[in-house]
Amino acid sequence: MSALSQLNIIQVNGLSKVVSTFEGELPILSDISFNVKHGESVAIVGTSGSGKSTLLSLLAGLDTASSGEIILDGEPLHTLDEEQRAALRAEKVGFVFQSFMLVQSLTALENVMLPAELAGESDAKEQALALLEKVGLSHRIDHYPSQLSGGEQQRVAIARAFIGTPKILFADEPSANLDSKNGKMVESLLFDLNQQHGTTLILVTHDEALAQKCQHIVQIEAGQLVKNSKEDVANVG
C-alpha cells in the first residue's frame, strides 16, 4: 500500500457521472478529483441541483460512476460488483439521511441494533444501549419512530449509523428536516462521535455555518469541482 493511500481513506480521481435522457446524455458530474484523510470531517456544498447528493451516492458505492475512480479505504469501487460494494458498506460505512429512514415496526433500540445483528455481532444490544445513552435517548428505547419527535428520530438514526464503529459516516442534509434547536444538537452529535471514534465524516449541506465547522470543504457547482479547501466558502445555497 502506498503512503498516499495510507494517508487518505478516500481518493477520487477524474470522477464523472452521465445519465441518459430522452434529450440525450446529461452530465451530472464532470472530472472531479480530491482526497479525504482518515478521521477528517468534510462538507460537500453547492446550490440545489449541483450534483452534491450524486457525489455522496458515488462515494458510498450506492451508485456507479460513468468514468474515473473512487478508492474507498484501499478498495477501488469500480472493480467491485454490487454484492461486493454492499459488503464493503456493511463493514466500513454508516449513513444518516435527512428522512431518518427508520424501520417503523421496530423500537428505537431494535432500529439501532439492526445493523449489528445483521453483521452477526453478539453484543448488538449492549452497543445499541450505549449509543442511545450517548445521544440522550436511553429513556426512549422502547418507543417506536411514530412516538418520537423528528429530532429524536434523527438521533436514533445517528446511533444506528455509528453502531459497529464504521470507518466512514456519510450524512445527507442531516439536519434539514429539524428545527434549529434539534438541528444544532444533531450536528454536535455528529462531530462529537466523529472525534470520539475517529470516524471520517462526509456530509452534504446547504448550511454555510455547518460547512465551516468541517476541516475540509468540497464545493460543487453544475457538476464541476470549483473549490477544494477550508476557506472562502460562498454560494452554498
Structure description:
The chain is built from eight helices and ten strands. With 237 residues, the chain is of the alpha/beta class. The strands form two sheets. Strands 6-7-8-3-9-10 form a six-stranded mixed beta sheet, sandwiched between helices. Strands 2-1-4-5 form a four-stranded antiparallel beta sheet. Helices cover 35% and strands 29% of the residues. α4 (108-118) packs across α5, α5 packs across α6 (150-162) and α6 runs parallel beside α7 (180-197).
Q: What is the structure about, briefly put?
A:
This protein has helices at 3-7, 52-59, 82-92, 108-118, 124-134, 150-162, 180-197, 208-213, and strands spanning 8-21, 24-37, 41-45, 67-72, 75-76, 93-97, 168-172, 200-204, 216-221, 224-229.
Write the SSE topology.
Layout: H1 3-7, E1 8-21, E2 24-37, E3 41-45, H2 52-59, E4 67-72, E5 75-76, H3 82-92, E6 93-97, H4 108-118, H5 124-134, H6 150-162, E7 168-172, H7 180-197, E8 200-204, H8 208-213, E9 216-221, E10 224-229
Parallel strand pairs: 3-8, 3-9, 6-7, 7-8
Antiparallel strand pairs: 1-2, 1-4, 4-5, 9-10
Helix pairs in contact: 4-5, 4-6, 5-6, 6-7
What are the defining features of this structure?
alpha/beta; 237 residues; single chain; nucleotide-binding; ATP-binding; 4-stranded antiparallel beta sheet; 10 strands; 6-stranded mixed beta sheet; 35% helix; 8 helices; ABC transporter ATP-binding protein
